[in-house]
Amino acid sequence: MTRKEMEDPTEVEIELKRRLGQLTDHLIQKQAQVEALSSEKATIAFRIEAVSRLLEENKSVMNSSNLESGKWAISDSKLRPMFEDKIRAGRKHLGSLVQQLDAIFLAGVVFLRRNPTAKLWCLVYLLCLHVWVIYILMAPSQSSNEGRSGAVFSLENLNNTAGV
């Protein structure tokens, strides 16, 4: 081969190099697809295994339940301590909430007992609140063909007059 033949490739060689480049790119693309699909397959297999484990555990729970009679008993599965802990924590939170609300209302009662003017203003406020609620609920709707209650219409009037 002469130097000129090596420097100037023929059309067939150019076409072969182009085709080789295309096939190489295609191969790399297919390898990336295979890797993505295999990782997706592994993820799905892991999820299936986790769900099947949960189903097996729940099957033992459901076997001991009697849903039609309204009684549901947790068997001696791994879920029993978890349910008991959740129920215990819920009772604890509810109990502390009730105690806090009780303390707030007791402080309010003590304040109202010691201050007769506060008692009077509280009574006036409650009376006005009840009159307003009765007015809202009993107010006739001007557009009776729409079937809306007086409360909805009154609230719309309030919004319209407030410029909202």
From TrEMBL:
The chain crosses the membrane at residues 118-138. It is found in: Golgi apparatus membrane. Keywords: Coiled coil, Golgi apparatus, Membrane, Transmembrane, Transmembrane helix. InterPro entries: Golgin_subfamily_A_member_5 (IPR019177). GO terms for biological process: Golgi organization; retrograde transport, vesicle recycling within Golgi. It comes from the Eukaryota. Its main location: Golgi. PANTHER family: GOLGIN CANDIDATE 2, GOLGIN-84. This is Golgin candidate 2. It comes from Populus tomentosa.
